[in-house]
Amino acid sequence: MKIYKRKAVIILMPLFIATHLLTGQVASPTTGSEKPKEKSLELSTFTVTSSQDKGYVTNRSPSAFKANVPLLKIPQQMMVMTRDMIEDTNYTNSASNVLAFVGVSSYSESELLSIRGTRSGYNLIDEHPDMNTGLDSINIDTYEVIRGSANVFYPTSSVRGVVVKTTRKPLPYSLQRVKLSYAQWGQYRAEVDSTGPVTKFWGGSLDYRFLGAYVDGDSYYSNMSLKNRAIHPSLQFTHGDTTVLLALDAQSRGRPVNDQGILDPSQDGTVYTGAGRNESWHFKNSYGTYDFADVRLQVRHHISDTWMIKSHTMIARTEQEFMPYTYPNQTNFANMTRTFAVRNFNTVFRSYNFNLDATGEVKILGRSTRLVLGGTTFQRTNTNLGRKVKPGLQTSYVVSLTNPNLNAVNMIGKNDWVDDPSQSNATRQTVTAGYGALSADLIPNRLTLDASLTWKAVDTYSFPNGYVSSYPFPATLAKLNAVLKRVGVVYEILPGRLSVYALNAEDFTPKNPNNRDENGKLLDDVHSIMKEAGIKLDMFDSKLVAGLSIFEIAETGQSLFVGLIDGISYYKGLGKTINKGWDLQLAYKPTPRLQVISTYFDGKLVDQTGTIKGDSFQGMFTIFSRYEMNRKFNFGGGLVRVMGRNIPNDLILPAGVVKKPNIDLKDANLVNLFANYIVDKHITVGVQVANLLDKHYAVGVQTASYVSMSQPRTFSTSIAYRF
Question: How far is CA 96 from CA 80, 469, 525, 549, 645, in A?
Answer without folding.
Answer: 15, 35, 28, 24, 17
